[in-house]
Amino acid sequence: MDSSVYKDRLLQRKHEILGRLTKIDSDLGRMKNPDSAERATEAENDEVLEEFGQVGADEMRAIDAALERIEEGTFGICVNCGKPISSERLEAVPYTPFCKKCAAELK
Distance between CA 32 and CA 19 in Å, rounded? Predict the structure, then answer.
């Protein structure tokens, strides 16, 4: 398996997420509208942004872990059972640490 292809994809995705997280931080730090009705709407929007930020941060941790596995030479090997992760699964979720069987068992 050519892990350099996955490394490039993971780094590109990490860059995209960093841009998105920066935008979210900027939006959350904006001045609040003095109108109470608008503030309520802004608060709801902020909750959604915070959730997106958490999802992005979680994905960043998964990407960093995958990049670490690439450096260690263990990328593409299930961290649970030690068997190879299918290329189809890595294409769909390149940062996955689990083979299909182990991922299903964790749910």
Answer: 23
Tens-place pLDDT, residues 27-81: 777 766 666 667 667 777 778 888 888 899 999 999 999 999 999 999 999 999 9
**Hunting for tokens 């990049």 — which residue is that?**
67
Tally of residues, the chain: 107
CB atoms within 10 A of CB 100: 14
CA-based nearest residue to 18, from 66, 61, 51: 61
